[in-house]
Amino acid sequence: MLIRDLAARCLAVVGAPWFSIAGFAVIVLNAACLGLETYSGIEAAAGPLLRLIEHLCVAGFLVELLIRFGACLDRPSTFFRDRWNLFDMLILAAPLLPGVRENVTLLRLLRLARIVRAFRLFPSLRVILVGIRRSLPGLGSFLLITGLVLYAYAMLGWMLFGAAQPDRYGTVGQAMLSLFLLLSLDDITNILQSGREITGWAVPYYVSYMVTACYLLTNLLVGLVLTALQEAHEAERAAADGKHRGDPIPVDDSPQHQIAVLREALDALERQLERVPEVPSPRSFR
Hints:
It is a single chain. With 286 residues, the chain is mostly helical. Helix content is 78%, strand content 0%. The chain has 13 helices and no strands. Helix 1 packs across helix 3, helix 2 packs antiparallel against helix 3 and helix 8 runs antiparallel to helix 12. About 3% of the residues have low confidence. This is Voltage-gated sodium channel. Keywords: Ion channel, Ion transport, Membrane, Transmembrane, Transmembrane helix, Transport.
């Protein structure tokens, strides 16, 4: 019963709005300290203070993780099934590993990775992260199409401008790099004008490339990401609706959990039997 009461209290703390706000404030404070260390003047003047704030932020992260573990104290396996909890444990424990704590670059990367923890605190940020993850399968097909388009136009560019502009179209690799940089349409006017001085095919070449690569492929990428974000938003909303309706929460069916439940039931039964008054035997009335 004590474990369940403690888990219920920790769960209430985790579900409170101020808990997410406090966690986000610690993340912002940690990120600010990490940025201030890049200024040599501030580092020289307030270096010890920044170290103290960093240690306090780590302590805050540890307290948050312990509270989340306490919320799953009656079923610990659910804590370790959450990938965010595993990520938090990795971020906190990695600086203690040999070979990592001596590497300043790795330590700074780990401190920078703490900013990613902000995604778990707010549903809107989680939707964006889930949307990006959902768009990865379609992104592979998009990259394949983009690569084929760039390769085709690179070969055409090499045939049209390779001799006159070897710095841009001397090889197919240079041509693909030039066309990739041209996706931003930076300096397209001068590039088109210089191409017209070489061949009359420059106008249809660059116009068709802009329509195909810069507009069609870009809109395809935007549509792919928006579709994934919409699916992630619908999944998040369905999960929230199920939680509000009181759908059954998955329980831990492991043998250890069942044994713990049986022990608690036996303890409760023994306490009830102790409170029952003793009934006199029939021989005492003779």
